[in-house]
Amino acid sequence: MKPSTPIPLTESDHWQAPWQNLAQSRFWFLMLTVMGSASSVTYAHPPLVAFAAIAGATLRPKLALLSAMTVWLASQLYGYVLRDYPYTSESLIWGLVMGFGTLFVALIATLRPSFSRQGLSGHIAWVAIALGTGFLLFEGLVMFCGFLLTGTHVFTLTTLGLLLFKETVWTIALATLHGFLIWRKTGALAISR
Predict the structure, then answer these.
(1) Which keywords appear in this protein's UniProt record, sorted alphabetically (predicted)?
(2) What is the pLDDT of residue 139?
(3) What single string gives the DSSP state of each residue in the chain?
(4) pTM
(5) What is the mean pLDDT of residues 150-165?
């Protein structure tokens, strides 16, 4: 009888198991949802695109949509209850537009093409693509609906740049936290083998 030789693990093997574990965990879902909901305290317009993109790229689809929509709902509740958003039809429509935008960004991010599941570099590339695509979709929807509602709704390049910067900073921070949790799970999996 020949001694068995261990099968070498690929980068995908080291990545996929902890990613799956974290994507299904209540811990990451709750952490992401609570941080997103709390961001409404800091920002009148929280980084909905960043949270939706990260939720879609790091959670199972149902959890991703639930997380993204909870963050959006928390921002609306906080706005209407504590920031005194006006109770007008236009204000409510804007809230719904942002809700649809958040939902669409999360849906796009949940697509996770095969390259994004092969390892850290593919995952990072997908998060960047989801953020960029989501930002264009979200802001495009806001501009389009603004035009329909008011006849004009213009963002300056400076405003768009600042919005993109805020969304990017949040995405990097959340992706780094997610990467750290994956790294911790990878170590825990290696110890348990």
Answers:
(1) Membrane, Transmembrane, Transmembrane helix
(2) 94
(3) -PPPPPPPPPHHHHHHHHHHHHHT-HHHHHHHHHHHHHHHHH-SS--HHHHHHHHHHHS-HHHHHHHHHHHHHHHHHHHHHTS----SHHHHHHHHHHHHHHHHHHHHHTT--GGGGS-HHHHHHHHHHHHHHHHHHHHHHHHHHHHHHHS-----HHHHHHHHHHHHHHHHHHHHHHHHHHHHHHHHHHHH-
(4) 0.87
(5) 85
Residue 180 has which token pair?
């750290």
Domain positions in the chain: 24-188
Whole-number Cα distances in Å, 155 to 46, 82, 147: 17, 26, 11
Retrieve residue 107's tokens.
Answer: 């849906």
pLDDT in tens, 67-106: 999 999 999 999 999 999 999 998 999 999 999 999 999 9
